[in-house]
Amino acid sequence: MTNLAFFLRLPERTFKKILIFSPQKEQAMDKLYTQPGYILHDPSTNFTFNISGFLSQTASPTTTIQTLLKENYAHAVKVASEKIHQIETGQVVNKTVIVSESENRSVDHYNLRLKHSSVAGKSLEDSLQLWKDIVEKVNAITSGQFKNPQNGKAYKNVIFNGIGGSYLGPLLLCVAIKGIYFNDLQQRDGLARLYFVSNTDAESFDQLFGEKGVLDLSESLLVNMSKSGGTAETKGNMNTFNRLLLDRGIAQNGNIGSYNIAITTKNSNFDKFAQKNQFLHTFYMNEETGGRTSVGSAIGMVPAAFAKLDFAEFLRGQSYMDEMTRKFDTLENQLKNPALITAILLDHYQKRHGRKNLIVLGYSDALREFAHYLQQLYMESLGKQFSESSGVENPEGQTVFGGVGTGEQHAFMQQVQKGINDCIVKFVHFLKRNADYSVLDPTDKQELKGERLEQSELTEFSKKGTSYLSMGRQMLGFIKGTENALYKNGKPFLTCSYEKCDMFNMGMMIALEERIVSILAAFRGINAYDQPGVQDGKISANDMNKFGDVLERKVVSVILQNKGWKGSASVAIKEFEKELTGAPIWYVDSILSDMYGNWNVEWAYPRLKQVVTDVKREWSEQEGRTEFVYQFISKL
User: Fold this and answer.
1) Whole-angstrom distance, CA of residue 472 vs CA of residue 428
2) Do you know which SUPFAM superfamilies this protein is assigned to (predicted)?
3) Domain boundary residue among 530, 565, 594?
4) Phi/psi at 149 (nearest 5 deg)?
5) Concatenated DSSP letters for 109-136?
6) Is the domain of 78 the same as that of 42?
7) Which residues pair with 144 in a beta bridge?
8) Contact 492, 425 (CB under 8 A)
9) Is residue 472 part of a domain?
10) What radius of gyration, in Å, describes the C-alpha atoms of the chain?
């Protein structure tokens, strides 16, 4: 049974009334700041959730957390509680009355770590068994027991190929636990070097796999993570990797399977492709697991197994936080629910003061990818156009950005502190650290006096107070100093402190944010589990690619007939009207511009490269039009 202690004391007057600085006002402010705000502490895990910095901006003698729960949000809390119940009992919640956007399916990420799940085959126990099976297969690879059957080599490089949730979650965990310098370590416990590819970026791909790249393809294994296999970026990266294997004669007899692993859904097109090409392994995730909440599935498990992370503890951490944030029944339990309290504060404050950005600052390099992870979780879940039940257009969203403190403080904190009031700041840090170092000047003997003292010197030291500072203590100073500055500048913030950076606490951390998003979506009446806007972008990108292919073919055709071609985007649309119907002029100009910049780059425009010696571009301001004019010089 979790023993949660919480304290609530509100100031007698609002913060804004004492914002004008004077010695008396400063004293009053200091007194206000030292009064306990709302602090929730879980002794079992040392998790601490502090919103005193938020209350100073939102509370008044008549508005407290209790009154918000009892009066303003009583109905909303019931709606949120029911939505969580529907999700955890396998009901169809990923739906909306807008037929073109509705996916009409259940959502199962909570079930994957639920101790007592009513959905068959989806529980914490089932997930732990899946993890055990994955570890057994992956350990055979990482131990060197299983080698590439084609060349007998061990797999020294493992590359994880995914995008969105199939990339951000595994990357977050590997960076958090293994650190940002893992691949450079001399001793990696026998593990392969781990790399992540996501973007469809030829430059970074070339750095890894090009002729001068850092990886030997014959010792590499590509782990492809995609529910359907149809995601353009992931599929393109896989096809390029496999093309290099074939072109360089590394994959014998066209057998690419020894260099690939798949994580997908059963019977998907990607599953069929993997089976046909005899991939090393195919691991399965559920159709009901959304990408941005898939880190608790095989999507997170397989990278964790290759990195030797304790994923069982991650799942237990998620399950533990889910228990904490499932408390909706009584006022006392609601006050012990950090996800509910956070959602209410974010929602209520923004209703009073307008929409605000959420800045997430993780005070550890281990949390380097945390803000990126939350960007997708919040913005893809809450950025919706229509109400899920009425279909009425009512745009919603929550902008998230951030990074690692203290570095990001030197990037945008000036505006947050002194500029427009458009932000809420969330601090995340760890109570315990595994190492610490002195930051005193090693060349200053006087300064170093306080660094190493004999026991007999401690009494004298305590009287004179020679200063001392470590890296960890300096970091704490920046955290609390920044909080204090925000407080004095009238900017709201909240703080989450986790005991240490391990898989259990990372599980708690992610589960808390997932629940906040679910509750906010319920408050606002939107479907948090679809992503029609992402689909819009994919469709437009496919259109752009089709126009690009057509335009290259038409330009090549004209060059073959006329020994060259000269024209602008508007000219191209006129000349190739049939093929370019519906193409915006800026689409066409972008394609022509790309041809100009990359016609001679290998594999960029292979057909064009065969027929031209050069492509020129000039800026034209004639006949009331301003546009680029392109000239393709024929080699024929």
Assistant:
1) 15
2) SIS domain
3) 530
4) -65, -15
5) TTGGG-SS-SSTT-SHHHHHHHHHHHHH
6) yes
7) none
8) yes
9) yes
10) 28
Residue 109 belongs to some domain of the structure: no
> How many Å apart are CA 384 and CA 393, to the nearest integer?
9
Tell me: do 305 and 321 sit in the same domain: no
- Helices of type H across 21-162: 23-34, 52-58, 65-67, 74-88, 124-142
Angle between helices 503-524 and 74-88 (to 10 degrees): 120
Say if residues 375 and 426 touch (Cβ distance below 8 Å): no
Structural domain span for residue 290: 124-309
* pTM score, whole prediction: 0.90
- Residue 53 confidence (pLDDT): 81
The H-or-E segment that residue 619 falls in is strand 612-622
For the chain, report the end-to-end CA distance as a whole number of angstroms.
81
Distance of alpha carbon 547 from alpha carbon 541, whole angstroms = 10
Q: Phi/psi class of residue 417: alpha, beta or left (left: φ > 0; alpha: ψ in -120 to 50)? A: alpha
Per the structure, the count of domains in the chain is 3
> Is-contact 307 301, C-beta < 8 A?
no
Q: DSSP string covering 522-564, please?
A: HHHT--TT--HHHHHHHHHHHHHHHHHHHHHHHHHHHHHHHSE
Residues in the chain: 636
Give the end of a domain, one of 472, 503, 530. 530
Of residues 354, 347, 361, the one with CA closest to residue 417:
361
Output the pLDDT for position 102. Answer: 84
In-domain check, residue 213: yes
Residues 390-406 as b/e (b if ≥16 CB within 10 A, e otherwise) read eeeeeebbbbbbbbbbb
In 3D, which of 398, 393, 395 has the Cα closest to residue 382? Answer: 398
Cα distance between residue 177 and residue 199, in whole Å:
23
Which DSSP letter does residue 438 get?
A: B
Of 40, 36, 63, nearest to 512 by C-alpha is 40
Sign for the CA dihedral angle at 249, 252, 253, 254 comes to negative
Same domain for 446 and 367? yes
Closest CA to 303 of 172, 149, 152: 172
pLDDT in tens, 218-228: 999 999 999 98
**What would the two tokens of residue 411 be?**
């990037």
Is the same domain home to 442 and 569? Answer: no
For 178-193, b/e burial (b = at least 16 CB within 10 A) is beeeeeeeeeeeebbb
Q: Work out the angle at residue 472's Cα, subtended by the Cα atoms of residues 471 and 475, and round it to the nearest 5 degrees.
A: 90
Maximum distance among all Cα pairs of the chain, rounded to whole angstroms: 95
Question: Contacts by 586-593 with C-beta closer than 8 Å and gap 24+?
Answer: 587/544, 587/547, 588/547, 588/551, 589/627, 589/628, 590/544, 591/544, 591/547, 591/548, 591/551, 591/552, 592/551, 592/568, 592/628, 592/630, 593/617, 593/628
Q: How far is C-alpha 590 from the chain's CA centre?
A: 29
The parts of the chain modelled with pLDDT lower than 70 are 1-37, 56-63, 449-450, 452-467
Task: Please tell me the predicted confidence (pLDDT) of residue 622.
Answer: 83
301 and 325 inside one domain:
no
* Residue 362 in tokens: 């993780």
**How many beta carbons lie within 10 A of that of residue 438, not counting itself?**
16
